[in-house]
Amino acid sequence: MTFPSRMDHDTAPYWQGLAEKALRITRCQQCAHWIHPPRACCPGCWSDDIKLEEPSGRATLYSYLVQPTEPGGPPAVVGWAELEEQERLFIVARIEGATSETVAIGSELTLDWAEAGDTFLPIFRQGARL
Ligand SMILES: [Zn+2]
Fold first, then answer.
1. Closest CA to 30 of 43, 18, 17, 21
2. Which of 33, 38, 72, 87 is most open to solvent, judged by the fewest CB atoms within 10 Å of its CB?
3. How far apart are CA 21 and CA 127, in angstroms?
C-alpha cells in the first residue's frame, strides 16, 4: 500500500491500522492517557510504555469546516470528532452525508470507513449510534 508522506516511525502503526479498517490510537499504559497523533512518549507522565488500543468509534462533533471539493461539486464537511474515550482526543475526518445545513456541533458521531485507493480512511456519520 501507499503510505502518506507524513508517516514516520511513530505514526506507521496508525496508518497500518487504517489499511485494516482499524482505528488504533496510542495509549499510555502507565497513566491511561490516549495520545493522538501518536508519540513515542506520553505527554502526561513521560512514560514510553505506549501501546495501541482501539477506541469505541463513538464521538461527538467538536468543530468543523465546510471545504470545497471540485468545482460544482458539493462541499465536504470536515469535522473534529472528539472520541468518547477522552476530552480533546480528536480525529479529523470527513462527516459523511452532512451538509452545511445539517451539520451540528455537539451531535453524536459514529465511525465508518471510506475506501481510499488501497487503504481506508476513517469517516464519521452523525447520529445512529450502534
Ligand atoms: Zn502517561
1. 43
2. 72
3. 20
The pLDDT, as a whole number, for residue 74 is: 82
Q: Output the CA 34–ligand 1 centroid distance in Å.
A: 8
Residue 37 Cα to chain centre, angstroms: 9
Q: How far apart are CA 113 and CA 96, in angstroms?
A: 10
Q: Count how many residues are written for the chain.
A: 130
Å from CA of 5 to ligand 1 middle: 28
Cell numbers representing residue 76 in the block = 465536504
Q: Give pLDDT < 70 ranges for the chain.
A: 1-5, 128-130
CA of 13 to the centre of ligand 1 (A): 19
Residue 18: in which H helix or E strand, if any? Answer: helix 12-19
- Going from the Cα of 62 to the center of ligand 1, the distance in angstroms, rounded, reads 24
Q: Which residues contact 72 (CB under 8 A, 6 or more apart)?
A: none
